[in-house]
Amino acid sequence: MNLIDATKSYADQMEAIGIVKEWMKKSDKPNERLNRLAYLLQQMILRINNLEYHLDDLKFINEHIIDKKNKEILKLRSQKWTQEKN
Hints:
This protein has helices at 3-26, 32-85. By secondary structure, the chain is mainly alpha-helical.
């Protein structure tokens, strides 16, 4: 996930929490359903953030695997070219 998408995701998450907080403030009495919704949103946000970190890690690892594979291919091609030349 690039920085722009991560920033948009974070902004959306904070907006959702802000909306629930506004509803809670406007409520004339404690509302268990709003409290539960706030808790669920918080848990979803934590899970989303965790998944985004894992995705970034996987992308990073994948880039290194591809780089290593490409280097090995170049090495093998070079060896083959050297053998054919001799």
